[in-house]
Write a structure and sequence with these properties.
alpha/beta, 5-stranded mixed sheet, 5 helices
Amino acid sequence: MPMKDTKKTRARMIKIEIQNASQDRDIPAKKQLQDWATSALDDAGKDNLTIRIVDEEESAALNRNWRGREGPTNVLSFPYGDDQHVPEYLGDIVLCAPVIKREASEQGKPVEAHWAHMIIHGILHLQGYDHQEQTETEKMEQLETRLLNAIGFENPYQVD
């Protein structure tokens, strides 16, 4: 069942809906997810979004239907483009719990850090950032690193 919360931050109302459709019960707390999401929001005024946590089957179906790619992925972003009807709604991000946990383990990262990174990464996509070109990639990765550092996490792209 979806859980709804509203947070007041920086003198503005931020509404982040968390939908947990995953069977995995080892996910970060709702407040933690909301705090990480809030840390990535810019000042454009689009402060409403949905974070949906899914398992591999739903992630794979969304990835196939919307991106034409097979298999589950860590995060998908669905920006809301109709400013006339809901100008404050940013969009939806979909996070695949098993993929995030597996990637964190494979990359030798704390799972909490990878969750924070994927939330920030997804929200930056909602805000128009991309990584199709090298200059876009560098800009997005620098911003992700700065935002993650600000909330206490290491550079996710640094290889030891």
